[in-house]
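Worked Example 4.2. Read the sequence first, then its C-alpha cells.
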Amino acid sequence: MLNYVADLDSVFHALADPGRRLMLERLDQGPTSVSELGKSLPMSLAAVVQHVQILEASGLVRTQKRGRTRMCSLNPAPLRSAERWISERRAFVERRLDRLGQYLAEHTETTETIVTSDLPTNAGQSGLHPLKEENS
C-alpha cells in the first residue's frame, strides 16, 4: 500500500509540470530522442534531461541508449494506476452527492409541508411577515 501511494505521488508530481505533460503528449506519437523532445519546448537541453529523469523515475517514460542517442518511450501503466485512483475517488464523491440529493429531495417536501401548514390563516392580512417575530 505504501509503495502504491509513493508511486502515485511520483506520477502526480511528474504530471504537475506542463512541460512534462507536453513531452508525454509527444511520446503518444511514438518513441523519440531526448533532443527531439526538447525542440518544441522553450528550455535548454539540460532542463529537458532533468524533466526526462523525473518522468523516468515516475515510471511514465522508459529510456534506452542507442549509440550516442537516448531514446524515450511512453509507459502507460502508471497512467492507468492514476486513472484508477481518480475513478475510485470520483465514484465515492458521486455516491455521496447522490445520497445528499436523495436526502434533500425527501426533506424538502417534508419541510415545505411543515412550513406552509404552520402559517396562520390571516398571515397576509396583517401586513406582517408570517415568519418574522414582532419587535414591539
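Now turn to a second chain, presented in exactly the same format:
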Amino acid sequence: MLEGVFYYASFDLAMFIIRVVLGLVFIVHGFAKLKNLKGTISMMGGMGIPITGIIIPAVALIEFFGGILVLIGFYTGWASLLLAIVMVGAILIVKMKKGFVNGWEFDLSLLAMALSVLFTGPGAWVLF
C-alpha cells in the first residue's frame, strides 16, 4: 500500500523537477537569443544554418515560450514536442560535428527531458 502512494508522489515530484529545470534552461536560452537576435542570426549563419532569418527567430520563440509553458505545466505536450524538435535540429545541424563530449551531450539531455514530459505528461503539480 505504501509503495503505491510513494510511487505516485515520487512520479509527480520527478516530473515537477524535470519541468522546472527544462523550462528554466529553455527560458534562459530563448531569452538570450531574443535579446540579441541579430547577433544570433549572424553567428548561426556563419555555422552554415540555412534560412537563419526564419529559423533562428522561430527557435528563440519556441525556446522562450515553450520553456514557460513547460514550467507552468500548460500545453506541455505541444511545448515539449516543439522543444524536442529544436534539440534534434541543434544536435544534427550544429553540435554533431563537435562530438559527444563538449558537443551534443547537453542537448541530448534536454531532448531526453523534453521527450519524458511529452510521453508521460506534466504530472499533477501544474498551475493549469
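Notes for the reader: The chain has a mean pLDDT of 93. The chain is about 85% helix and 0% strand.
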